[in-house]
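ok, trying the design again with the full structure, not the truncated one.
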């Protein structure tokens, strides 16, 4: 049977993970040979515990938390034989949705599969979307908000950031092309969604060895307002100001101080470079 560790991030979902910890552990125990329960109270502790569990040779690391906690679990499990399971208990839960895990049952009865990852030149891994520009500014604001929970937080952050909307000159370099343009946002998707279910890269597939890149070129405030409703459906990609393409490697520079976010976590100011690493992570899901 499987040796497992349950990594609980009690602050996720405004305490939802803490409330779910006992029932999640009880549901896991009958299906594994051993279960070690770990409780982390900050990001540094979460990462340290995840890495220690993987180094100890657990077959399965189950993260009870949101996308931030899952992002830390990825750093420990990427490139190893330890599978990552996620019991979603956070705000957005985009990675859990991408791997088909809505509850502990999907970890218990799911199947193992390989997932491509993106990797920054800093060595950080990401599984969902790396973004810069308007969308990373929205992330900055949403992460600082205490209300409301869920996708509505991102909706309100979007509206607030529209007040200071501005485009910037950006140079995008791939393994095949170079684009110099005035952009409002750039999203590099390994999976389709960010921000609690927004399909910014709607056709991204984490098993094809490629990123889907979505670029919104110079957009006025009124144009972006008209475009926003289409983001929820993925129809924004047909807008004339939106450019999409696929690439294995992407470098972004310029941006007038833009900050890159990956998996909803703050990374660094541009320039940034990312590449796909096919099959870098084993996950459990439906």
């Amino acid at each position: 049977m499987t040796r497992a560790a349950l990594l609980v991030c009690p602050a996720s979902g405004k305490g939802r993970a803490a409330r779910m910890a006992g029932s999640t552990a009880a549901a896991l125990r009958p299906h594994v040979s051993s279960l070690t329960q770990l409780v982390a109270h900050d990001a540094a502790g979460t990462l340290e515990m995840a890495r220690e569990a993987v180094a100890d040779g657990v077959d399965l690391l189950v993260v009870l938390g949101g996308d931030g906690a899952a992002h830390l679990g990825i750093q420990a499990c990427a490139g190893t034989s330890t599978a990552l399971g996620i019991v979603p208990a956070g705000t957005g839960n985009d990675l859990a949705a991408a791997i088909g895990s809505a509850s502990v049952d999907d970890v218990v009865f799911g199947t193992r599969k390989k997932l491509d990852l993106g990797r920054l030149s800093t060595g950080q891994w990401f599984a969902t979307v790396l973004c810069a520009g308007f969308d990373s500014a929205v992330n900055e604001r949403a992460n600082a908000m205490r209300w409301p929970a869920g996708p509505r937080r991102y909706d309100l952050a979007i509206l607030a950031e529209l007040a200071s909307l501005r485009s910037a000159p950006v140079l995008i370099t791939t393994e095949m092309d170079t684009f110099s343009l005035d952009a409002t946002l750039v999203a590099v998707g390994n999976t389709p969604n960010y921000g609690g279910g927004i399909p910014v890269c709607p056709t991204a597939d984490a098993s094809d060895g490629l990123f889907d890149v979505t670029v919104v070129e110079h957009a006025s405030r009124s144009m972006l307002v008209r475009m926003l409703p289409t983001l929820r459906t993925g129809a924004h990609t047909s807008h004339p100001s939106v450019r999409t393409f696929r690439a294995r490697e992407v470098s972004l520079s310029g941006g007038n101080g833009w900050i890159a976010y990956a998996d909803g976590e703050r990374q660094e100011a541009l320039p940034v470079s990312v590449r796909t690493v096919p099959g870098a992570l084993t996950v459990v899901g439906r």
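Keeping the full-length input from now on. The mean pLDDT is 91.
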